[in-house]
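fyi for ur records
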Amino acid sequence: MESRIRLNKFIANNGSISRRTADEYIQQKRVTVNNITVDFPMFEVDPGKDKVRVDGELIKVLTKHIYIALNKPAGVVSTVSDDKKRVTVTDLVKLNQKIYPVGRLDYDTTGLILMTNDGELADELMHPRNKVEKTYLVKLSKPLEEKHRHLLEKGIVLDKKRTLPATIRFANRHDFKKLYITIS
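which gave:
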């Protein structure tokens, strides 16, 4: 019995790129199936038979998923590679297999970041349609003003789109410079 899978999903599940990036590579004609260029992300492949290559590199079918919880230090970028030659989260984890971060934390931000080779899980956690909540402990340089709190709790406009409402609670009821913010 054949077990076919969409090309973009196959690449994301077995490589170090997201499904969206796989879509871009496919549309840029950087992907071949059995030495034939394919430019349709929904094209289906048989993982047991078809040979899929991205930029000429064979995508090997992974048999084991890797999940790592990393405490990202400040001064590290949440990406696989960096054109500015800064240290990346993948530089901190020495593995012979490709893994990538699930989401990102800013350069100066510290905290938990998940890393995996499981493209399906990464997509489930990162795609906005799933509204996965993330909670951050934030330390402010000055107390959070009530008007700013209300704006965040209603949703703000970023990149011409309104965010979903945030949930804010203070870590200590007497300290308005340290708070937990939950967003999705």
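The longest helix spans residues 19-27. thats all i got for now
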